[in-house]
Amino acid sequence: MTQVAADPFPRRIEIRRGRRRTVQLTLEEGRFVARVPERATGPKLDQTLEQLREQLWKRLRRESVWTDSDLTLLAHGVALDHLSDVDLPPWTVRFSRRQHKRWGSCTFDGKSGRIRISAHLIGHPRWVIAEVLLHELIHLVVHDHGPVFSALMQRSPDHDRGQGYLEALE
Q: What is the model's pTM?
Protein backbone atom coordinates (compact mmCIF):
# COMPACT_ATOMS: atom_id res chain seq x y z
CA MET A 1 0.00 0.00 0.00
CA THR A 2 1.38 3.42 -0.99
CA GLN A 3 1.85 5.93 1.79
CA VAL A 4 -0.33 9.02 1.25
CA ALA A 5 1.60 12.23 1.76
CA ALA A 6 0.34 14.50 4.51
CA ASP A 7 -1.08 17.79 3.28
CA PRO A 8 1.91 20.15 3.69
CA PHE A 9 -0.06 23.36 3.31
CA PRO A 10 -1.33 25.59 6.11
CA ARG A 11 -5.04 25.43 6.86
CA ARG A 12 -5.39 29.19 6.49
CA ILE A 13 -6.79 30.49 3.21
CA GLU A 14 -6.22 34.10 2.17
CA ILE A 15 -9.48 35.56 0.86
CA ARG A 16 -9.52 38.21 -1.87
CA ARG A 17 -12.92 39.68 -2.58
CA GLY A 18 -13.88 41.12 -5.93
CA ARG A 19 -16.57 41.53 -8.53
CA ARG A 20 -17.02 37.96 -9.59
CA ARG A 21 -19.68 35.24 -9.52
CA THR A 22 -17.64 32.17 -8.67
CA VAL A 23 -15.18 31.02 -6.03
CA GLN A 24 -11.68 30.15 -7.21
CA LEU A 25 -8.90 28.64 -5.12
CA THR A 26 -5.25 28.67 -6.21
CA LEU A 27 -1.90 27.82 -4.67
CA GLU A 28 0.47 30.79 -4.73
CA GLU A 29 3.94 30.55 -3.22
CA GLY A 30 2.94 27.76 -0.84
CA ARG A 31 -0.29 29.31 0.41
CA PHE A 32 -3.91 29.07 -0.66
CA VAL A 33 -5.55 32.16 -2.12
CA ALA A 34 -9.33 32.28 -2.67
CA ARG A 35 -10.96 34.75 -5.00
CA VAL A 36 -14.57 35.10 -3.92
CA PRO A 37 -17.59 37.29 -4.72
CA GLU A 38 -17.80 40.45 -2.57
CA ARG A 39 -20.86 39.30 -0.64
CA ALA A 40 -19.99 35.63 -0.14
CA THR A 41 -19.73 34.78 3.57
CA GLY A 42 -20.72 32.26 6.19
CA PRO A 43 -20.67 28.50 6.53
CA LYS A 44 -21.54 27.87 2.87
CA LEU A 45 -18.41 29.74 1.77
CA ASP A 46 -16.32 27.88 4.35
CA GLN A 47 -17.67 24.55 3.10
CA THR A 48 -17.02 25.48 -0.54
CA LEU A 49 -13.45 26.57 0.23
CA GLU A 50 -12.74 23.34 2.12
CA GLN A 51 -14.07 21.27 -0.80
CA LEU A 52 -11.98 23.24 -3.30
CA ARG A 53 -8.93 22.89 -1.05
CA GLU A 54 -9.36 19.11 -0.91
CA GLN A 55 -9.81 18.89 -4.71
CA LEU A 56 -6.71 21.02 -5.31
CA TRP A 57 -4.65 18.93 -2.87
CA LYS A 58 -5.73 15.68 -4.58
CA ARG A 59 -4.72 17.08 -7.98
CA LEU A 60 -1.36 18.30 -6.67
CA ARG A 61 -0.70 14.94 -5.01
CA ARG A 62 -1.27 13.17 -8.35
CA GLU A 63 0.88 15.59 -10.33
CA SER A 64 3.91 15.80 -8.09
CA VAL A 65 6.24 13.92 -5.76
CA TRP A 66 5.89 14.34 -1.99
CA THR A 67 7.91 11.61 -0.26
CA ASP A 68 11.36 10.04 -0.52
CA SER A 69 9.80 6.73 -1.61
CA ASP A 70 7.89 8.51 -4.42
CA LEU A 71 11.14 10.22 -5.40
CA THR A 72 12.95 6.87 -5.54
CA LEU A 73 10.23 5.38 -7.76
CA LEU A 74 10.39 8.38 -10.07
CA ALA A 75 14.21 8.17 -10.23
CA HIS A 76 14.11 4.49 -11.20
CA GLY A 77 11.55 5.31 -13.88
CA VAL A 78 13.76 8.10 -15.25
CA ALA A 79 16.79 5.80 -15.29
CA LEU A 80 14.82 3.09 -17.09
CA ASP A 81 13.26 5.48 -19.63
CA HIS A 82 16.34 7.53 -20.53
CA LEU A 83 19.47 5.70 -19.35
CA SER A 84 18.71 2.00 -19.83
CA ASP A 85 21.79 1.59 -22.04
CA VAL A 86 24.09 3.35 -19.52
CA ASP A 87 25.82 1.29 -16.85
CA LEU A 88 24.81 3.25 -13.74
CA PRO A 89 26.46 2.38 -10.42
CA PRO A 90 24.26 1.68 -7.39
CA TRP A 91 22.72 4.87 -6.02
CA THR A 92 20.26 6.26 -3.50
CA VAL A 93 18.07 9.34 -3.76
CA ARG A 94 16.19 11.45 -1.25
CA PHE A 95 14.96 14.98 -0.63
CA SER A 96 17.30 17.32 1.23
CA ARG A 97 15.99 20.15 3.38
CA ARG A 98 19.50 21.60 3.70
CA GLN A 99 19.91 22.30 -0.01
CA HIS A 100 19.03 25.94 -0.68
CA LYS A 101 21.21 26.99 -3.60
CA ARG A 102 21.00 23.94 -5.88
CA TRP A 103 18.09 21.91 -7.22
CA GLY A 104 20.07 18.70 -6.90
CA SER A 105 23.45 17.26 -6.05
CA CYS A 106 25.30 14.05 -6.73
CA THR A 107 28.21 12.55 -4.83
CA PHE A 108 30.04 9.46 -6.00
CA ASP A 109 32.66 7.62 -3.92
CA GLY A 110 33.81 5.29 -6.69
CA LYS A 111 31.40 2.50 -5.74
CA SER A 112 28.00 4.09 -5.24
CA GLY A 113 26.28 7.42 -5.58
CA ARG A 114 24.08 9.60 -3.40
CA ILE A 115 21.63 11.93 -5.09
CA ARG A 116 19.96 14.70 -3.12
CA ILE A 117 17.09 16.75 -4.51
CA SER A 118 16.18 20.07 -2.91
CA ALA A 119 13.02 19.85 -0.83
CA HIS A 120 12.08 23.19 -2.41
CA LEU A 121 10.96 21.13 -5.42
CA ILE A 122 8.37 19.20 -3.41
CA GLY A 123 4.99 19.92 -4.93
CA HIS A 124 6.31 21.06 -8.29
CA PRO A 125 5.32 19.04 -11.38
CA ARG A 126 6.71 15.51 -11.68
CA TRP A 127 8.32 16.25 -15.04
CA VAL A 128 10.38 19.08 -13.49
CA ILE A 129 11.66 16.83 -10.72
CA ALA A 130 12.31 14.12 -13.33
CA GLU A 131 14.55 16.53 -15.25
CA VAL A 132 16.60 17.29 -12.12
CA LEU A 133 16.84 13.56 -11.41
CA LEU A 134 18.02 12.85 -14.95
CA HIS A 135 20.68 15.55 -14.59
CA GLU A 136 21.99 14.03 -11.35
CA LEU A 137 21.79 10.43 -12.60
CA ILE A 138 23.93 11.37 -15.59
CA HIS A 139 26.49 12.85 -13.20
CA LEU A 140 27.00 9.35 -11.78
CA VAL A 141 28.82 8.48 -15.02
CA VAL A 142 29.72 11.86 -16.59
CA HIS A 143 31.27 14.32 -14.17
CA ASP A 144 31.28 17.47 -16.31
CA HIS A 145 28.72 19.29 -18.46
CA GLY A 146 30.47 18.54 -21.75
CA PRO A 147 29.10 17.16 -25.02
CA VAL A 148 28.50 13.62 -23.68
CA PHE A 149 26.50 15.02 -20.77
CA SER A 150 24.49 17.28 -23.11
CA ALA A 151 23.74 14.40 -25.47
CA LEU A 152 22.41 12.29 -22.59
CA MET A 153 20.27 15.19 -21.30
CA GLN A 154 18.77 15.66 -24.77
CA ARG A 155 17.23 12.18 -24.50
CA SER A 156 14.46 13.76 -22.46
CA PRO A 157 11.75 15.49 -24.51
CA ASP A 158 11.13 17.83 -21.54
CA HIS A 159 14.74 19.01 -21.24
CA ASP A 160 14.33 22.56 -22.58
CA ARG A 161 10.96 23.02 -20.90
CA GLY A 162 12.37 21.82 -17.56
CA GLN A 163 15.37 24.10 -17.82
CA GLY A 164 13.10 27.07 -18.52
CA TYR A 165 10.84 26.17 -15.59
CA LEU A 166 13.77 25.99 -13.16
CA GLU A 167 15.25 29.25 -14.46
CA ALA A 168 11.89 30.94 -13.90
CA LEU A 169 11.82 29.62 -10.30
CA GLU A 170 15.20 31.22 -9.61
A: 0.71
